[in-house]
């Protein structure tokens, strides 16, 4: 390998990869703009490196002071009298599939603002790439509650179980993703990691668990799946 050669590879596959970097100069220099991510682990059974850290009330207060002194905005954390704390987390939405929102309601004459009895209409669209949202949360706010709050902000009517919140970090020029368990507390992770987004940031993605959770789909969506399968079989 050339000393100038670098590549992104799954950590378990490094020993199996061999590259020939003797191609023409300039080859492969173009960036397609897509981020190559190394998902070290998307299994919630493996604990986060922050999970073993326990802080007493005095340490929490000290961490909050250090956190507030390092940020360049007014998105401060605040300590409450009961020992809990509040603050902001930023979540990047990286969804590859369209989301569903309520369609504009029209009356029989086609005028908006009038209900059509018995008909629930939806419209779907793709969120722009790189969409981010700041949420003001409590220290005990769970990851599942953050997902529900994000969907409400964008008036998304899809089932929250279709989505998952991921912890993203950058180490050794690699990007690592870990799916948060429903009970994990994002603001606590934010405090332990500090304000650096390289150390920790949050990403909302589709919940790719490897198993299809059919209960998360509506009856019309399930009928669409059946029609698609039937069409494929006929073809």
TrEMBL record:
Residues 211-235 form the SARAH domain. One of its GO terms (molecular function) is zinc ion binding. GO terms for cellular component: microtubule; nucleus. Its main location: cytoplasm. CDD domains: SARAH_RASSF1-like. It holds the Pfam family RA. It is found in: Cytoplasm, Cytoskeleton. Residues 25-52 are annotated as: Disordered. The keyword Oxidoreductase does not apply. GO terms for biological process: Ras protein signal transduction. Keywords: Cytoplasm, Cytoskeleton, Metal-binding, Microtubule, Phosphoprotein, Zinc, Zinc-finger. Residues 119-209 form the Ras-associating domain. InterPro entries: RA_dom, RASSF1-6, SARAH_dom, Ubiquitin-like_domsf. PANTHER family: RAS ASSOCIATION DOMAIN-CONTAINING PROTEIN 1, RASSF. This is RASF1 protein. It comes from Alectura lathami. The gene is Rassf1.
